[in-house]
Amino acid sequence: MNVLVLGSGGREHALSWKIAQDPSCGNLYIAPGNPGTAQVGSNLALNPEDFDAVAAKVAELSIDLIVVGPEAPLVAGITDYFANHSTLSSVGVIGPGKEGAELEGSKDYAKAFMARHDIPTAAYKTFTKETLAEAKAYLRSIDAPYVLKADGLAAGKGVLILDNLEEAEKEIEDMLANAKFGEASQRVVIEAFLDGIELSVFALTDGKNYVLLPNAKDYKRIGEGDTGLNTGGMGAVSPVPFADDAFMAKIEDKVVRPTVEGLKKDGIPYTGFIFFGLIKVGDEPFVIEYNVRMGDPETEVVMPRIEGNFLETLAAAAKGELAGKSVNFKSDFATTVMMVSGGYPGSYQKGKIITGAEGIAEATVFHAGTKMDGAELMTSGGRVIACTGMGGSIHEALNNSYKAVDQINFEGSYVRRDIGKDLM
Ligand code: AMP
Ligand code: GLY
């Protein structure tokens, strides 16, 4: 089977690293990929959002399965594009069509979906420019903290949590009346604040059945002790120790199954990953958000814990044949620590030479923001390299992650030294 993975980050390196190990994997391509994906397959210089260019390569290289890494091509409709293609409609695509992708593309759509299917989530109301006065009145009627969410995709910046009422009123005005997040804040969801601990749960579905993948916890803030600005993710741990069997069973019953059944009831075809961003409040799971793709850096701990041939499972999903399938997990812990450029998530420099990233025995090195310049490996993004260690305990896995981190060097590099500490 010939496979094309779309994307260029650590998530796509981890996906293609896993897929490449599968005996049924023929040629593996990654577009555009990075120097890490080039170690496990062939990179193609393609923009995943240029569907005609992707289709031309899919035809030329006899691709059987496309695995879409990031959300943007999904929200832009790549799955429908191939489903309706005159000659390529039989190519499998892992990732939902445009409608299913709205679960991530629109907070209001996702909240209405959850309300319709009785899936636990924070109480909410949606407002527009026309109802700005009502939005402010609503804020005055509820207690702090105030959670404001731009409806559309805002590069992870569209959620504001504010303690002060005046500030919340000013921000909602900025979002609705002054287009603070452009089109993404034409609508704003105000929702109740939930106080608890977050975790990420992943399913792969064919629209009728699903398999659960290993769960994970990610570390979003730049600073140790979960302080400072939000990032794309500074590290992750799998499995999540507080998500025991009983709690996972509750998540399946109250969240995962109702979501897949809801998609079916609503007539929304969906083949692909569902990423449940959850918060545990007391002993109950609530959905904070849906994503229609895998998480990054969660994928860097999820893939190494999957036993056996994951490509076979992906291919079964694409054919609508997930019934009766399951995925086995290794009992070992996986941890990943993200090395980032100095200054990230603010402005940072690129083009720093990276040394020591080859031949590391203790951990798997997943490339995120790297590029080759001649024979030299260089930084090319904020999040540069994720070091995934495995071990019988979080402590042991982290030791392996940090041993790798300590061998890799580039000017200005920064890591959080407290990944997983809250779980030990
Ligand atoms: P989102 O983009 O929806 O994942 O939100 C970003 C982050 O904001 C989440 O990871 C949570 O840490 C936080 N958050 C979102 N919604 C809520 C909520 N209702 N209560 C508490 N925290 C929230
Ligand atoms: N790590 C969170 C995300 O991928 O959205």
Characterization of this structure:
Helix content is 28%, strand content 27%. The protein has twelve helices and 21 strands. An eight-stranded antiparallel β-sheet has the order 16-15-10-11-14-17-21-18, sandwiched between helices. Glycine binds at residues 218, 233, 291, 295-296, 298. Adenosine monophosphate binds next to strand 7, strand 8 and strand 16.
- In CATH, what is the class of the domain at 3-97? Alpha Beta
Shape: globular
Helical content stands at 25-40%
Biggest beta-sheet profile: 8 strands, antiparallel
Helix/strand/pairing class, anyone?
alpha+beta
Question: DSSP helix count?
Answer: 12
Q: pLDDT average, as an integer?
A: 96
Kindly provide the radius of gyration, computed on alpha-carbon positions and rounded to a whole number of angstroms.
21 Å
Low-confidence stretches: none
Task: Give the CATH architecture of the domain at 3-97.
Answer: 3-Layer(aba) Sandwich
Q: How many strand segments?
A: 21
Note the beta-strand portion.
25-35%
Strand order of the largest sheet: 16-15-10-11-14-17-21-18
Q: State the separation between the terminal residues, measured CA to CA.
A: 41 Å
List of distinct ligands in this structure: adenosine monophosphate, glycine
At the third CATH level, what is the topology name of the domain at 3-97? Rossmann fold
Give structural attributes.
single chain, 424 residues, alpha+beta, Rossmann fold, Dna Ligase, domain 1, five-stranded parallel beta sheet, 27% strand, globular, binds adenosine monophosphate, binds glycine
